[in-house]
Amino acid sequence: QVQLVESGGGLVQAGGSLRLSCAASGRTFSNYGMGWFRQAPGKERDFVAAISWNGGWSGGNTYYADSVKGRFTISKDNAKNTGYLQMNSLKPEDTAVYYCAAKAFLTKGARVDDYNDWGQGTQVTVSS
After folding, report:
1. How far is CA 88 from CA 32, 103, 108, 115, in A?
2. Per-residue pLDDT tens for 86-116?
């Protein structure tokens, strides 16, 4: 099991940017694929982006929800045991609690059930 802690959330105006971080501990993060999900009040937890396990090397295949494609970028720094979600051109509809998730040797995961380990979440609020 890997422990995950998100940070970097906050309040931002529409059109602004935020970078979320997901610090991992307890296991070798290079063995994990990682995803970001978000959950707005009263709604289900939705897929945002994922990056695949890449055989222990840096990089990996990336996948995005259509709603964030071209605006968000997921990345993973194995040396720092940290994943990131760079969010640009933010919109009020991006407001949600953002969660990072991980699973060992995951090559593609866009469903909540694809992941074993979850962080506690970080709030992102985009004002209009």
Report:
1. 25, 26, 24, 25
2. 999 999 999 999 999 999 999 889 999 999 9
